[in-house]
Amino acid sequence: MAQHLLAFWNVENLFGPEDHPPRIDWIRDRVKNDLRGWTRALYDRKLAQLARIIVQMKSGAGPDILGVCEVEDGFVLADLAGLLNAALPDRRYAVVHADNTRDLRGIDTAFIYDSGAFTVDPALIFNHFVLRRTGTRDILQATFRSQAGNDIVLLCNHWPSRSGGTVESAGFRATAGETLGYWHQRIREEVGADMPVLAFGDFNDDPFDPSLRFNAVAWRERGDVERGRSAQFYNLAWEYLTFPATDTRGKTRMLNGTLYFGGDGNLFDQILVGKPLVTGDGPYSVVDGTARVEVFPEMVSPSVSLGPIRFGLPKGDVANVDQNGYSDHFPVSVMLAENVGMA
To answer: Are strands 151-158 and 135-146 parallel, antiparallel or unpaired?
Structure first.
């Protein structure tokens, strides 16, 4: 029985430096004010801070697969993977990425995965766009095959933000939920209902919001998913609604969000698993009690109204950057057990 840690992290504006040569022209124009003063040194520091957290996952072994969002392109992902490989010589991290040039700021979803543990068929990588008039975000789908020959389909999400108002923008996230729900159903129709499917990401809604519950069909009740015959998810975020976190001053308190805005926590970062992962009828199953928010003391703000310490962007003033920060989101993770004799 092998165990694999799957994690997700919104790494908050992982752009290349201000003079990033591969930058697409229209993106350069769109983000130029945010990136004024975003030097190579600041970019390298941001990468180092992210890597510092990632390598601590799985008790210092690093995740087997990491989904990320808010990354500019494949070049910054390769830089991050390179740092991880240098820090974890037993890993051989590679990247799954498809450019999403339709987002207003050109930010993408992607996977970083251990190519020694999994392979990915390029023909089974899909970018599902969530359309809206003012831009779109993507859901990146890839099929990962373990060394034992077992497949699992992962969908990395970054749903439309709440800019313009939570209620006013809710329809966009409902559309994203419908898109995810549709592709979950299509995967089952194409390759069978016994295919393990896991969706994680920054959903910009909480587990109890209609976009997750009714559009993506992601439930709180595990038994409903176990008994169901249609495409349904069990939302593991219900298992980490509150969690203890020790901050940079050594004080432990209970947090209730993977990000904080205006002093209030939101649990936007979630992990959704399909029926085979819940029942354990297939080659992979969720290890009970392992769904969690990845919190390490150095990334937790001592302020009672804040959660993660963000790195930020200069926007022309380096004072807007906290070089001891990381991201405005905490990562989330879950352990999967693999029955290596089922392939």
So the answer is: antiparallel
Q: Determine contact, residues 197/184, Cβ cutoff 8 Å.
A: yes
Q: Is 29 exposed, middle or buried (0-12, 13-18, 19+ CB in 10 A)?
A: exposed
Residues with Cβ < 8 Å from 25, sequence gap 6 or more? Answer: none
**Which 3 state secondary structure label does DSSP give 102?**
coil
What one-letter code names the amino acid at 314? P
Q: Sign (positive/negative) of CA torsion 80, 86, 88, 93?
A: positive
Query: Which residue type, as a one-letter code, is found at position 258?
Result: T
CB-CB contact of 106 with 151 (8 Å): no
What are 126's two structure tokens?
């899909």
Q: Using one digit for the tens of pLDDT, what is the confidence trace for 46-87?
A: 999 999 999 999 999 999 999 999 999 999 999 999 999 999
Q: Which tokens in the block code for residue 127?
A: 């970018």
Which residue, chain included where needed, has tokens 């001592």?
A: 302
Distance, CA of 113 to CA of 125 (rounded, Å)? 14
Integer angstrom CA distances of residue 93 from 86, 96, 307: 10, 10, 29
- Integer Cα distance of 209 and 169 in angstroms: 13
CA-to-CA distance for 201 and 139, rounded, in angstroms?
Answer: 9
**Six token digits for residue 76:** 């910054």
**Measured distance CA(71)–CA(152) in Å, rounded:** 24
Domains of the chain, earliest start first: 2-338 (3.60.10.10)
Grouping H, G, I as helix, E, B as strand and the rest as coil, residue 179 is helix
pTM of the predicted structure, to 2 decimals? 0.96
